[in-house]
Amino acid sequence: MMATVPTEYGMVLAAVLFCTGLVGLLVRRNVLFMLMSTEIMLNAAGLAFVVAGSRWHEPDGQIMFMIIVTMAGAEVAVGLALIMRFYHLFKTLDTDAADTLKG
Amino acid sequence: MLQLLWTVPALPLLGFALLALFGRRLPRAGVSVIGAGSVGLSAVASGLVAWGYITQTVPAAYSQCLWTWMEVGSLKVDMILWLDPISLVMILVATGVGFLIHVYSTEYMRDDADYARFFAYMNLFVGAMVVLVLAGSLPMLYLGWEGVGLCSYLLIGFWYDNADNARAAVKAFLVTRIGDIGMLIGLFVLWFSLGTLDIQPLMERAQLQWTPNSAVAVAATALLLCGALGKSGQLPLQVWLPDAMAGPTPVSALIHAATMVAAGVYLLARTHVLFDLAPAVQCVVAVIGAATLLLAGTSALAQRDIKRALAYSTISQLGYMFLALGVGAWSAALFHFMTHAFFKALLFMAAGAVILAMHHEQDMFNMGGLRRRLPLVFWTFLAGAMSLAALPLVTAGFYSKDMILWSVLSSPKGGFLLWAAGVVGAFLTGLYSFRIVFLVFFGEEKGHASAKPGPAMMIPLVLLAVLALGAGFVEIPETLGRVALFSSFMGVHAAEASAVLGEGTQQVLAALLALGGLAAAVVLYLLRPGIVKAWVATPSGAALQRLCASGWGFDALYGMLIIRPVVALSSLCRDDFMAVVWRAVGICAEGAAAGLGRAQTGRLRFYMAGIALGAVVVLALVVLL
């Protein structure tokens, strides 16, 4: 039997990753870095799935991770295209410049 | 042949559907072919149906049930077409004259940007009119009734860029709606009283269950009459028809002269059994008809606009039809409807040719001498004017008007006074119709007439001119040799008549008065135009002229009695208690919107923080509670 990493460690790592991503999303103004932060958050969620799956000896967690990776790939494709348009439109990557929908 | 009946309304409706869906993408020639062709095929179908009807071994009404429209409790309304002599004459006129007017329109509307929309509306109108006259039940008749009203509204306001046209359309819609509400309540009364709305069972049950002049008979027929008065432009709802001339001229010819405005006449003829059971209402119909024909006849004398003059003339001729309906002579009313459709459509279309040649000039005092410029238009207009003025022996209008006048004089429901109104009206008709002829086609040339109309406009004019002169020979009175094709087809047989004057005497009197009107027009508008000018210059003459020109001031009267009080009342009610309550709702909504609008900073990171905070709060609630 292989030595296993305790579940708590994996979950704490996932939480730390998620918070890193969230803080990055909130403090960074460069849209490219915001996109990268969302990727970190997605991976944090994926890690939590995998750890939970190994805790219960179920393959579902790994299946969910595959789905998350696929979804993240698609999201990056769309996100990068949007960033291209964003840059063409505003000549900057600062999201705070794009406040034309102000109420 | 009779099985083809359903195609008569279906073809124009199909044409409408095609033009409404694909009209913008079709070339003009395609629009013309679909627009005029669908009505033409429909006219051919009605011709075949008529042939099938006449050659039946046993003449009987034919009905065709298409489908059940609705079934609620004991109310069952079928889409059922009912063909009898009355509806046969109506569909022949609606599709036949309709086809000629469509052909005319292909040239008249040639340069209009909304060519396809025009023909779509026109096809929808013909379809709705045919549904109206073929309806076997009153709800279906009401469907067609509102359908033609809608097309009338759409086509009066066809050139909606001009606010006046849109206003005229709204006026026509609202005024006829007043009558239609009465008619709708009349349908409810009939349903509660007799328990059916199919026309033929309705007539049978009414004869069995109603006593003459009972309250329910008077109420139901009076309410039906309301609808007819609105649709046919009779007193007191006649004010919309002169303004309806804002639409294109073919519309005036088809809808506001030949077919739709006669729908009221058709309704009363269709339900004449009910009206026979309410002689009091019949008397009202006759009096309204007589009053309207005199009022509109005098108004027509003072108009400057050629189309308004013809519109008042239409109201006046519809007054004759109501007069005939009021004395129970519904077949005479239908006969006059038929000849009137021919000559009034002709007059409007010839007037349209004149207006087009004069570059959209409609004031008759700016025309003149067009006899030499537009000879064929002149001769066809003259044929129509002669028929309108009922010049004796040679015109269709003479035979139909004579039939009405003789019925009025000889019927026990008529009488000398109503007849006298009719013959005075005949004098006025002769005067105003030849006033138009002399002002437009005689005298010195004013303005500059451009090129002559082409064959698509002239051929319908010539065909209608032949009908306007010749269509009367299907019904010739006894004194002149007795032909009774029309009334025997309608299943009406001449009753023994007794009157203060003999039939021949009254004919001679009426003919003399019509000729007198012509003679007066010759003197006043051709030989000595100075007399009228001098008289109008005097104060009393000028006042009378203003009164007639405004159609006896009904617009001003309604403005004072109805519109101003309603406007005053509504502005008074603007600040009442309930308005404050409703306004509070608005103020709260606006305040909330302003507050929540603050949260819409447009900054992405702010929204992200909101989402994260919300997620934390929800998680905290889940964990802690």
What's the alpha carbon Rg of chain B, rounded to whole Å? Answer: 28 Å
- Percentage of residues assigned to helices of chain B: over 70%
Unreliable segments of 5+ consecutive residues of chain A: none
The number of helical segments of chain B is 27
The proportion of strand residues of chain B reads: under 5%
What is the average per-residue confidence, as pLDDT of chain A, rounded to a whole number? 89
Characterise the protein shown here:
The complex is a heterodimer of chains A (103) and B (625). Chain A has 103 residues and is mainly alpha-helical. Helix content of chain A is 75%, strand content 0%. Chain A has a domain at 29-92: Helix Hairpins. In chain A, helix 1 (7-27) runs antiparallel to helix 2. The longest helix of chain A is centred in the C-terminal third of the chain and has 31 residues, at 60-90. Chain A starts with 6 loop residues before the first helix and ends in a 13-residue tail after the last helix. Chain B has helices at 7-22, 28-54, 85-108, 115-134, 138-156, 163-194, 199-209, 215-231, 240-243, 249-258, 263-270, 272-276, 279-301, 306-326, 330-357, 370-373, 375-388, 396-410, 416-441, 455-470, 485-489, 503-527, 529-537, 539-549, 554-572, 577-598, 604-624; strands spanning 62-72, 75-83, 475-476, 483-484. The longest helix of chain B has 32 residues, at 163-194. The mean pLDDT of chain B is 88. In chain B, the strands form two sheets. A two-stranded antiparallel ribbon of chain B has the order 1-2. Chain B has a two-stranded antiparallel sheet with strand order 3-4. With 625 residues, chain B is mainly alpha-helical. Chain B is globular, with a radius of gyration of 28 Å. At the A-B interface, helix 1 of A face helix 26 and helix 27 of B.
